[in-house]
Amino acid sequence: xxxxxxxxxxxxxxxxxxxxxxxxxxxxxxxxxxxxxxxxxxxxxxxxxxxxxxxxxxxxxxxxxxxxxxxxxxxxxxxxxxxxxxxxxxxxxxxxxxxxxxxxxxxxxxxxxxxxxxxxxxxxxxxxxxxxxxxxxxxxxxxxxxxxxxxxxxxxxxxxxxxxxxxxxxxxxxxxxxxxxxxxxxxxxxxxxxxxxxxxxxxxxxxxxxxxxxxxxxxxxxxxxxxxxxxxxxxxxxxxxxxxxxxxxxxxxxxxxxxxxxxxxxxxxxxxxxxxxxxxxxxxxxxxxxxxxxxxxxxxxxxxxxxxxxxxxxxxxxxxxxxxxxxxxxxxxxxxxxxxxxxxxxxxxxxxxxxxxxxxxxxxxxxxxxxxxxxxxxxxxxxxxxxxxxxxxxxxxxxxxxxxxxxxxxxxxxxxxxxxxxxxxxxxxxxxxxxxxxxxxxxxxxxxxxxxxxxxxxxxxxxxxxxxxxxxxxx
Length: 475
Known about the structure:
Elements: H1 5-9, E1 20-29, H2 45-63, E2 84-88, H3 92-105, E3 115-116, E4 122-123, H4 126-129, E5 136-137, H5 159-167, H6 172-180, H7 182-187, H8 189-192, H9 206-219, H10 233-251, H11 261-279, E6 286-291, H12 293-302, H13 305-308, E7 321-328, E8 341-348, E9 359-360, E10 370-372, H14 373-381, H15 388-395, E11 410-411, E12 417-418, H16 426-452, E13 454-458, H17 459-462, E14 470-474
Parallel strand pairs: 1-6, 2-5, 2-6
Antiparallel strand pairs: 1-7, 3-4, 7-8, 8-9, 8-10, 11-12, 13-14
Helix pairs in contact: 2-3, 9-10, 10-12, 11-12
C-alpha cells in the first residue's frame, strides 16, 4: 500500500567499498492472505510464493556462498541452527509465512542431505533434503492471532496501547474524515453487503472495508465481485489512502505514543539480538521475526522515518521486509571491535527481489546511510521495551505474568518506585502493619485469658504434647 514514488526518489545506492556484515536482524510481514473479515484467515498460494521469493532474495544478499553482503561465518547451504533465530506470534498466517520464507532462505540440499549410519546404510532426508528450521513463539504473546483481528491492538494485550489507540477516535483528524467520507462509504455498500451491515460503512471501519475489497480484487475474478462497476481505480486508491490514515492513526501518535507498543517491543528485540551478536563475537548471526503491519507503522513513527518519508505512514504491502545490518567498514575475517561497528537500515515494500531490491533509509531524522553502533543503541534504546517488566510497566498491565511487577507504588520523576506511606517503602510499611496486627491479637488473647480465669502452663507438665509448647487451662 506504500507509494512507489519514494523508492524511485530515494534509491540510495549501497556502498561499493569493502565492508563486512557480522550480524543482521530482520522483520517481515506475511504474504497475501484471505480477508480478516472471514476468519480464520489463511495464507494463500500467492502469499506463499511472495514470502518464498523474499527469502530467496535475502539468501542472495546474506547467505549464499556468493552473497553480495555475506554475513561473516554464516553457513551457506546446510543451516547451522545456533546461527539463526526465527520468531513469530501464535498466528497461522505469520507462522506459515515464516516457514515459506525459510524455504527460500535455506532451500533443500538434495544429495547433501544423505546420512550414513553405523551399519553403512544411508538415509536421505525427505523432500529432497528439505531443511527443518524452528519458528519460535514471540515472547509475551504480543500479536497472537493478529491476522484474525481487524484492529491489531486487540491482539496486543497491552492495556495502555488500546486506550491510547482509542484516543484516535476522539481526535479532530478522525472526526473530520468520519464526516467528510460518509457518502463515499455509503455508496460502496452494494459491493460488501454480503459481509457488512449498512451501518458498518464508515471511516470508523476503513481498514476492514478496504481489506475485504482489496483481497477480492487480488484473489477473485472480477466477474465474481458484486457491483464491481463501483470500484474504479480512483475509488480503490481512495479506499487505500483512507485505510492508511486510519491504521497509522491507531499505530502511532507523537504525543501519545503508548499505542506504538509493537514498535517499542521490536526495538527491544533488535537491540537484544544484536547485543548478543556482539557479546558472542558473532555466534548469533541472523535474527528474523514475522509480524503484522502495525509493527512497521509503529516503528516508522518512533524512529522518525515517517516524519521524513511520508510514504512510510502507509500500510506496507504483503511480504514487505526490513533489515538492520551490523557491519564494519573493512574487509575482515575476524569480529571487529565495538567502536568499528555500524548499523544500516534497509526496507523493501512488498516481496524483495532483484527488481524490487531493498532501499537504504537514514534513521532518526539523519542524512547518513548508516549510524555508529553506539548511536544506534542509544537512540533505539530511548524507546525500546526490552523485557517483561518494561512491557508491563509501559502497558499498565497488572494481572497474569505482570502481577509479579505490580504493586501499589507509583513512579517518581526518575522512574523509581515509591510508595505513599510518608517516605516508608511498601515492604517496610507491610512489616510494620503485620507487627501492629500481631500485637493487637496478643493483647486480646491476654484479656480473654484474664477475664476467663485461665492460666498458661507447659504441655510437658500435662504429658500430652511435645516439650516447649503451652496450652491454656482452667485455673
